[in-house]
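Usage

Read records sequentially. Each one opens with the input sequence:
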Amino acid sequence: SFSHGFDTTGIQFDEHGSYKPTWQPSYYSKVFNTKAQCLIKQYNRFKNREFSVNGTLTLGENIADTIGIRVAYNAFLKNIGGLDKLRQASSVNNLTSEQLFFVAFAQRWCQKDTREYTLRNINDPHTTSGARVNGSVQNMREFSEAFKCPPNLPNNPTNKCRLL
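and closes with the structure output:
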């Protein structure tokens, strides 16, 4: 997805796909790395069974996920009238359009990982499905507002990680 253009690898290439770091080294080291460390620490706290997520290994994908859901949500807001009609026609009438957006996002990653699956994918740069959902939404004020999450709970931390 285009959001990979802002991850740890994508920022090293220009708009034509040529290797050409465009960010000043001082900005990269001070700003980007500081913001990336926030995500690394956050994802390191996720566990799948007895295994912890490796926030450093999964950083590129976590950046893409957190940017991707933000872009998708902004696109959703521009077409909220159509989604209101969808919600009215659905059996999920007790959810707001905003809540329905986040539920649909979470359903995309709905799966139960076995221990064997987790072991086989322990070195995969993609984080676990649960962490992909929870890590992305806990960084969105819009999610906490949509579900009226009290502050300082796992899905509404005071310190939200945001790269852009």
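Summary fields computed downstream for this record:
- Residues 25 and 77 are 35 Å apart (CA to CA).
- The mean pLDDT is 80.
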